[in-house]
Amino acid sequence: MLWCLTFIPPLPPPLAPTPAPPSPPIREYQSCVMVTVAGMSNALSGVVACNSILPVIACPPLKDDVNMLVNIHSSLQCPSKVPVMTVLSPSNTAECVLRILSLN
């Protein structure tokens, strides 16, 4: 099964106080790869990678070479312990997802 998610929906507010917070819904998926598509300043990929234990692939929608030279650094330069893979071609992104999911 192939999951391509661009965002993580927030949890609904609890109806009554609970003794322990519910676990994030993202842990329910065993075979899942996050693919983020965000242009310009790509903070989405880093935020998803920080809040997930799943692999994250950034595929920024770049218009041309000038746009790539200006905006690619926000996808490539992430803080330590924030693993984001950047793939520029959508077809290569799909191939990477298929290969990652075939490892399970």
Give a written overview of the molecule.
This protein is of the alpha/beta class and 104 residues long. The chain has a single domain, classed as Rossmann fold. The protein has helices at 43-50, 65-71, 73-76, 90-102, and strands at 34-36, 56-58, 85-86. The protein has a 3-stranded parallel beta sheet with strand order 1-2-3, with helices on one face. The protein is globular. The N and C termini lie close together (11 Å).
CATH class: Alpha Beta
Specify the biggest β-sheet: 3 strands, parallel
Radius of gyration over C-alpha positions, nearest whole angstrom: 16 Å
Low-confidence stretches: 1-8
Bin the helical content: 25-40%
What is the strand arrangement across the widest sheet?
1-2-3
Structural class: alpha/beta
CATH architectural grouping:
3-Layer(aba) Sandwich
Overall pLDDT confidence = 75
Give the tally of structural domains.
1
